[in-house]
Amino acid sequence: MSSLLGIDNGLTVTKAVIFDADGSQLSVARRRVPQSMPHARWVERDMAGLWQATAEAIQEAIALSGRPASDIKAVAATAHGDGLYLLDNDRRPLGPGILSLDSRAGEIVDRWSRGSVFAEALALTGQVPHASSPSSLLVWLREHDPERFSRVAHILACKDWLRFCLTGTIGTDLTEASTSFTNVRTQSHVPEAMRIFGLEALFEALPPMMHSADIVGYVTTDAAALSGLAEGTPVACGLHDVTASALGMGGHEEGVVSIVAGTYSINEIVSTEPRVDLRWFCRNAIDLGRWNNMSISPASTANYDWFLDTLCCPEQDEAKRTGGSIHEMLAAEIDIALGRPSTILFHPYLFGSPYGNAASASFLGLHGWHDRGDMLKAVLEGIVFNHRTHVEALRDGFAVREVRLTGGGSRNPAFAQMFADVLNVPVIVTSTDEAAAFGAALCAGAAVGLFASPQQGARAVSKTSHEYLPDAARNAVFEDRFSLYCRIAESLKPQWLEIERLAGQSIEGAA
């Protein structure tokens, strides 16, 4: 028997998922990885703790699979992109890992947007920097923590750190390399890209690039002891989780918009030539000569999770106590709210938006007769509206023949149907629950010859679970609501800046 291990590290949970060679899921184990927010806009986590939690998840997944560790023929990791995971000259973590929800560098990005940096970066790298880009975070460190900046020896992404923990080797893949410092046309790291940001002194700290399905090392003795994997198991290079999710649901190809409704609002489509636009990132796809065009913002189901954590604490506690699901507990409230009209509109900008760093979330049209179900419905609708903003941008630039959806929200039929009604196109939800981990496993399988390529492996084993068709009547209602949602967002642009200025005012100080 042969199986494959895909590791998927998100922003709050790290997962180990074991798949049979035929694509069926054998086991999954999860561990929460605590975040630290020591200051406003900082979102970090301990790098050693992340590896410890991942190793524990791997050990549990092996036990749950009912197969020995020697049955796993290869391993690959995927994880959140952007952010920053740094090592010093001794290959030790240089402070905590910085997550892609971090926005401490927002002022630097705002400064760049008023000068020449945005235009130069877009022309050379195919994208403009954002608050959690490696470029902006490194400049923030240079300006605010020069001692730490002076010790940077290796610039890694999250999944590259996990690969290092497994193998002791340093490197990255095409998809991850293109987050800040590659030439969009040659698809390789270039010093010119770092000069745009004044970071050319760190060019040698960039990791070497390999294909996602290349074997980059083998599980070490220490990693085997901690994780339960067999020493010497091949490890493939892996890939950015955005690309992994598209691959895992069979959507990493031309003409298919892949939507990931997760912490981030991910909306992506592959092209065979670089097409540059301010509304999306033109980054490397898995293979040279192909590009992954991503229109994204940190404004998807993180808003729903925040609502649950902040306003549904008793239900959360009850779900933990009974082993039930908080989502199932609230489903009836949401279903009732979906069946009645509502004035509530929600802009899902708790952690970021397509409108820049100053935007913030808001409920509008809220009255005393509304209940929690009405607010939850508005949160879900706002999330889908934000995805539509990105999908419409991609429709302007690329021919779209199909839309595929994954992410935690896709498992809720009402939520998936809302995507079809709001986008006014059929939406396919695949049967792969763990799409990103499956994408990593496909790379692992291709690395050891189980598949001719990751894409061919995806075509061989992916199956359509359900197709949601748009309802004309519901679409008409959503059209009116989406139009108002957009007009309000545009009108709030100057007010968002005023709201941010309030953060510097103290009521006690004024007294």
TrEMBL record:
GO biological process: carbohydrate metabolic process
Molecular function (Gene Ontology), one example: phosphotransferase activity, alcohol group as acceptor
InterPro entries: ATPase_NBD, Carb_kinase_FGGY, Carb_kinase_FGGY_CS, FGGY_C, FGGY_Carb_Kinase, FGGY_N
Keyword Calcium set for record: no
Keyword Ubl conjugation recorded: no
Keywords: Kinase, Transferase
Record domain Carbohydrate kinase FGGY N-terminal: where: 4-248
Pfam families membership: FGGY_C, FGGY_N
PANTHER family: L-XYLULOSE_3-KETO-L-GULONATE KINASE, SUGAR KINASE
Family: Belongs to the FGGY kinase family.
Protein name (Swiss-Prot/TrEMBL): Carbohydrate kinase FGGY
Lineage of producing organism: Bacteria, Pseudomonadati, Pseudomonadota, Alphaproteobacteria, Hyphomicrobiales
